[in-house]
């Protein structure tokens, strides 16, 4: 378990930070940007959890989001450590996101989506406060995905990291529809409405 005794170390005062393997890189390195945006996604989901108290299925939604927040710390740790896990030390393997975590997202997506009203148009972010915040989480996770994919084109990473973050945005989408009365409260795009 991690134990933090000092919050500031001054080691980053010159614009560098340490990765999981101890290597120091610039704080604007694509890897740092990728796991930083995963952290931002986590924070946005934290706000969504506050709004979940308004929903009749609060406990179930909050439990899903809590699991996802924990997964996002795992994903950040994975991205913080270069490599894809194949060359990790057997004595001290890096924490990596797993297929099981992605599969859990898929199972939840399928279960939620089964009860939603069919879509007849694209959905505009909005409806309930919870749905709107889940749409923010969806878009931030998509930005994290773009950065992770960019990183994967430059360096070797755990391929499950890309799969997980891709599924996460889908999860946020179906959960936002669930938060909008099973999709009945969705705000639908009306093409050309304001011409």
Automatic annotation (TrEMBL):
Listed GO MF terms: ATP binding; corrinoid adenosyltransferase activity
Keyword Cytoplasm: yes
Catalytic activity: 2 cob(II)yrinate a,c diamide + reduced [electron-transfer flavoprotein] + 2 ATP = 2 adenosylcob(III)yrinate a,c-diamide + 2 triphosphate + oxidized [electron-transfer flavoprotein] + 3 H(+); 2 cob(II)alamin + reduced [electron-transfer flavoprotein] + 2 ATP = 2 adenosylcob(III)alamin + 2 triphosphate + oxidized [electron-transfer flavoprotein] + 3 H(+)
This protein's pathway: Cofactor biosynthesis; adenosylcobalamin biosynthesis; adenosylcobalamin from cob(II)yrinate a,c-diamide: step 2/7
Cobalamin adenosyltransferase-like domain residues: 7-179
Main localization, broad class: cytoplasm
Compartment(s) of residence: Cytoplasm
EC number in record: 2.5.1.17
GO cellular component terms attached to this protein's record: cytoplasm
GO biological process per UniProt: cobalamin biosynthetic process
Keywords: ATP-binding, Cobalamin biosynthesis, Cytoplasm, Nucleotide-binding, Transferase
InterPro entries named in the record: CblAdoTrfase-like, CblAdoTrfase-like_sf, PduO-typ
Domain of life according to the entry: Bacteria
Annotated family: Belongs to the Cob(I)alamin adenosyltransferase family.
Protein name in UniProt: Corrinoid adenosyltransferase
Organism of derivation: Thalassospira profundimaris
